[in-house]
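Structure ticket #2291
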Amino acid sequence: MENNTLFIFYSVYFITLVIFSIIINTILLRFANTLGIRDYNTTIIRWNTSSKPALGGITFFISFLISIACSVFFFSTDNLFLHKPFMGLISSVMIAFMMGLADDAYNTRPWIKFFVQLLCGVILILTDNFITITGIQYLDYVLTIIWTIGIMNSINMLDNMDAIATLVSLFIFITILTCIYLSGQIYSFDFFLLLAICASLIGFLFYNWYPSKMFMGDTGSQFLGIILAYFGIKYCWNGFDVQIEYIQAKQLAFTLITFLPTILDTAVVVTTRIFSGKSPFVGGKDHTTHNLAYLGLSDSQVAFVFVGLSVISLFVAISIKQIIIGWSHVYTVLCLLYFFVLYWLMLIIINRNKNK
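Resolution: structure written out below.
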């Protein structure tokens, strides 16, 4: 397939799925009276005080299934269903989606959610989807489990204000898509699948932007969490750069920058709650989003702050992956310094809000 033809095909495919996502969300929103609606004042703590349908994850999952169905026609030379890592992705996504759906409907216990997330991590390991950065197999397994549980929870935690989790996830996927494109792998199933997920996120954003009409719920956050964990392992932790090199410090820096908004929020929340004598597993309005709102920013302005942060992360990550030749410890220090500057800035904002 020629490049121009491929561009037209992907464009039509992407636009069609965006429109499809908007239509499906419209239908779900129109006919949902109780499905996915919970009293958030008694079940979990959200920034929004009103109950709204948590249906966004259903559209994500439908787009995921459509991309797999279409792949049969466009990737027939490579039988995906005989590919062990792909089956690991399918299995873990199915389990994460069902757990999220059950949590939105019945408000499952935290230990059940943790067990399912742990199971997803184990499935990824058993199907050869694990981090290989240390060279010590069992240590890599542990790191993979921590990564999977951490990302699934971080997206869930970040889904506390309109559009935030959607935007952050979208830009992480765009970063990975850009790396795939620049490496010349646009004919791959991964590129095909990520386009579908980005389209579903954009279609959902139509109803999730402030003032939102629906939430993604645990159905959406757990689905996105496991997808992000999987592609984070494949293209961030274990990926090669444009020089076909694999440098552990470079991969660590690339992963940190790519996932910076999620890692930053989780790090801030966990540390502040621990030092305040609170459990990091109990919900609260003490996230980075909330503290920006306490400064006087509107919900839309908070969303734009995260857009800005995500755009910066996108360009820095691509520069690390595709532009910087070789690697120096100076680059590693700069990436860590960038993260900790943002981290301490958020702590200063939190302390200022407490002293008001």
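Closing remark: The CA atoms of residues 13 and 317 lie 27 Å apart.
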